[in-house]
Amino acid sequence: MPKDTGLVSWKDLAPGMYITEPGNSVKFKTGDWRSHRPQLDKEKCIKCGQCYLLCPEPAYEENEEGYFICNLMYCKGCGICAAICPKGAITMVLEEE
Amino acid sequence: MGKRVAKEVSIAVADAVAQCRVDVISAYPITPQTHIVEHLAELVNNGELDAEYIPVESEHAALSACIGAAATGARTFTSTSAQGLLFMYENIFIASALRLPIVMVIANRSISAPISIWNDHSDVMTIRDSGWIQTFAENGQEAVDLVYHAYKVAEKCLLPVAVNLDGFIVTHVVEPIEMPDQELVDKYLPPLKMKYKLDPKKPITIGAIGVPEIYTEAKKALDEALKASYKVIVQAWREFERLFGRKYQPVETYKMEDAEVGMIIMGSLAETAMNAVNEMRKKGKKVGLIRFRLWRPFPMQDFLKALGKVKALCVVDRAVSHCSTGGPVGIEVRSALYQSNKRPKVLNLIAGLSGRDVTVEDFMEMFEMTYESISKKPKFSYQIYGVKE
Q1: What are the residue ranges spanned by the domains of chain B?
Q2: Of B102, B200, B218, B264, which sits most exposed with the smallest number of CB within 10 A?
Q3: Residue A11 belongs to a domain
Q4: Is B251-384 in the same CATH topology as B3-244?
Q5: What distance in Å separates the CA atoms of residue B295 and residue B309, rounded to the nearest whole number?
Q6: pTM
Q7: Any idea where the 4Fe-4S ferredoxin-type domain is (chain A) (predicted)?
Q8: What is the interface pTM, i.e. ipTM, of the complex?
Q9: A-chain residues near B200 (CB < 8 A)
Q10: Which residue range(s) make up the domain with A47?
């Protein structure tokens, strides 16, 4: 296990640890404690975008072809996308696989 | 200069808060704080004070509303006592960690059970580790002056300040009090301008999660901010003296210059103790008194300087810290001494719980007990004085 160390010096924190830069949470990797990841079968996908709409993170982004792709840097592996997919195109697979 | 008028201290404190031009008052009434917030409600209702008065449903909400209002850059006020302070508890730590310049007057009252409305310091001692700046008034004039000072310091340091005054003994007494002119208060206290505040035009996040990678740094930053507030506190008292003519300092002493036995006490009982010092001196015993006006940040150097060359020290606590090594002040003082070369004998007594009278004679007896402790080691690390066996 790597040891936790500080991110920034206490001297560089804004008073009260305020976050003064809006939207900087995108820099924060939240997908590193996932046990399952979603796997998309493009053959079955109808590009309805329900996974994109219902992802609580939100980790899904639309690509040029119109598919919704999960950004694994943010995905926590909750499986809502797989449960909601009307075509069963998303399956949750173990991270080790 | 302002006029010297006879006023109930609670009313005078409320008038001082109004003179500080607060924007938001959020409070829930509780004895013995009631008159303070009642009078402020009157001032707002009568149109004499242009402020938002939020009659909240609890003390938890009272401080929550202050936190929210202060985060938008408003000058805020709340006040409470005993159970009310305990009901605020989780928000107390949030107010300081979020660096919000809230001012709270605590009309000190003992904590239930048994139910008690009377005075001691058991309520405020529960928040001694909270990161709030904490001052203690001895009388009405000082209570009023500490209110102006509290806003000055809070807004310069971006830290909340708790001004403590003894319930009933100070709050409900009618005293001649000099209320300064409004122009003078305005000069001392410019409008609040916060560098960071909640503003839709420039969004920021207040109260974000502190993951293990950053929580330690956040605590260190708060600790350093509180430490750095000491200078501002002293400077604000100096400026106060220049404008208002009354001098304040972190630690007050009375006849300590040549004292061989000293006593430490906080709050209004120090006035009684001063009488005891006079009586003891008439009997040829060189005793003196130390009073902490500033409790957080702990004024270490002022305290060590005030000690002089005493052989023994009597620390009179107004709260119990059950089965620890002393009362809250006693623990602090012993710990401070351990970091210095001074080693007077320390006798730690707990007295005046829940408004029980501590008389001049009591203080004289405590001084005698302290004299005895010089040659005879006390068999206890602390003792509840005057308890009926």
Answers
A1: 3-244, 251-384
A2: B200
A3: no
A4: yes
A5: 22
A6: 0.92
A7: 36-65, 66-95
A8: 0.88
A9: none
A10: 29-94
| Strands (E) located in B198-321 | 251-254, 261-265, 287-292, 294-296, 312-317
A21 in a domain, yes or no?
no
Q: Give the neighbor-by-neighbor strand order of the sheet with B133-136.
A: B52-54, B24-26, B76-80, B103-108, B161-166, B133-136, B294-296
Contacts of A11 in chain B (CB under 8 A): 221
Query: B236: which 2 tokens?
Result: 């604000």
Q: CATH code at A34?
A: 3.30.70.20
Region B225-254: mean pLDDT is: 98
CB-CB: which of A4, A5, A17 is closest to B210? A17
Phi, psi of A27 (to 5 degrees): -80, -10
Are the beta carbons of B221 and A8 separated by less than 8 Å?
no
Write down the CATH number for the domain with range B3-244: 3.40.50.970
Contact yes or no for A15 and B216 at CB 8 A: no
Q: Which of A5, A9, A20 sits opposite B204 (nearest CB)?
A: A20
What residues have CB less than 8 Å from A63, skipping those under 6 apart? A69
CB of A19 within 8 Å of a chain B CB? The answer is yes
The Cα–Cα gap between B142 and B139 comes to: 5
Q: What pLDDT is attached to residue A2?
A: 58
